[in-house]
Amino acid sequence: MDGAVSQPTVATPMVERGGSGRQTATLLFADYGMNIPSQALIAHNDTIAQNPDMVRRFLAATLKGWEEAEKDPKAAAAVLVRLATDPKPTTTDVDTLQATLFFARTDRMRGKPFGIAAKDDLEESLDVLSKSGMTKTRVPLTSVYTDAMLPK
pTM for the whole thing? Predict the structure, then answer.
């Protein structure tokens, strides 16, 4: 690469090893007051109401996957390669997976189990969306987030 490139932060390890010899510089939204969580699971209210056990089991399995990936990123990367179908990768960059794991939590969420969001981050995110005009109105946090379905 010969110039400025916009790339997802998790791709930094791959870009740096891409052969250009250039170092990357990362501009994080959080450095400028935008602590927007990067990972979320979304379910329709009807699905939650009609299939709460399925939602709980899905969340438990998903969170277990995140936790296991954090414990052993190399093994998790191998699983990603094995299970991916289209396109079929030959390798998954462990450094990229570790970056993904790091950015799955904001500073306020570090040290907490996966799935536990920092409500201050979510409130700030809703403020950013509202003040920027990306949403027409500022919705209450309780209308878009709950941790009630998470495993205990």
Answer: 0.72
